[in-house]
Design brief:
Distance between the termini: 41 Å
Strand content: under 5%
Number of helices: 9
Largest sheet: none
Number of strands: 0
Oligomer: single chain
Radius of gyration: 20 Å
Length: about 280
């Protein structure tokens, strides 16, 4: 067995996160448009000139080129390095929280796909079923491995004690039911009262999948996402926006809630339980 220094482990995760962040930009741009993820190679969206490898180094190339295309001088959005840095930080965060374990690998996949879904939802106001479904398949694989190897991989949180949630598959199943069921119920009730959907079905499906990864802590995702969404809506209305006709993407808020629940969810719940005298 190779003894890998923890610092080196995080360094490698950060480097991989940067590299995959570059690919995340490709997915965010091309996937919703039905374009191939591999062909044509990376090119300038303004002049279609191919981007050389030395101009495609994550973050660094954008800085050296001052955010412009080498061929035509057109501006390149700051979103590209933002996504790359975000990917790097999320991969490192997974390593810091879960250490050199299999759970860190599943956390990396979860955070990475949520990053992609966040920007797609911002741009197109939808969460592609293929990406949400692929994330669900990864979650199910993790649950199956945990069930038969007795190594707790998925859910990432929510497995504790000797009760119902001590079994990974039961914790994941409860999260799936809670995430999908509660959000679907909210959507139905909101539709009956207001005459329009409260949550899109993409959000409902994503919450169900997040339940696989987070178990009962998926309810924290819904709560945090709702709070962040309400704050965003309030800020929008104060700037003169019309919330009645606006389509607010809920995916980014759910993604933020999922990262929060996966990393500090148990600590937050323990602190709250002690505060109200439950423990």
């Amino acid at each position: 067995m190779i003894d890998v220094p923890y610092g080196f482990f995080l360094f490698v995760l950060g480097g991989l996160g940067l590299s995959f962040g570059s690919f995340a930009n490709v997915v965010i741009w091309r996937f919703p448009r039905g374009e191939s993820l591999t062909s044509p190679p990376s090119h300038c969206p303004s002049c279609s000139a191919s981007i050389a490898w030395y101009d495609n180094v994550p973050v660094l190339s954008w800085l050296l080129l001052r955010g412009r295309c080498r061929s035509c001088g057109a501006r390149i959005s700051a979103r590209y390095p933002l996504v790359e840095v975000s990917s790097c930080l999320l991969w490192v965060l997974a390593g810091v929280v879960f250490g050199m374990t299999g759970s860190a690998g599943f956390a990396v996949v979860l955070f990475y796909v949520l990053l992609i879904l966040t920007f797609i939802d911002i741009d197109h106001k939808r969460l592609p079923n293929v990406l949400v479904g692929a994330l669900g398949v990864v979650g199910i694989i993790g649950v199956i491995i945990s069930r038969f190897t007795r190594v707790p991989l998925v859910p990432l949180v929510g497995i504790a004690g000797s009760g119902l949630f001590s079994q990974p598959w039961l914790a994941a199943a409860s999260g799936l039911v809670l995430g999908g069921g509660v959000s679907l119920l909210i959507t139905a009730l909101y539709g009956m009262l207001r005459g329009k959907a409260g949550l899109g079905m993409g959000d409902v499906k994503l919450l169900a999948v997040l339940g696989l990864f987070l178990g009962p802590y998926v309810l924290m995702v819904l709560m945090v996402g709702s709070i962040l969404g309400a704050v965003y809506g309030l800020c929008t209305s104060r700037r003169g926006g019309d919330l009645r006709s606006a389509r607010i993407p809920f995916g980014p808020f759910l993604a933020a809630g999922a990262v929060l629940a996966a990393t500090v969810g148990p600590a937050v719940w323990t602190a709250y339980a002690r505060l109200v005298g439950l423990v």
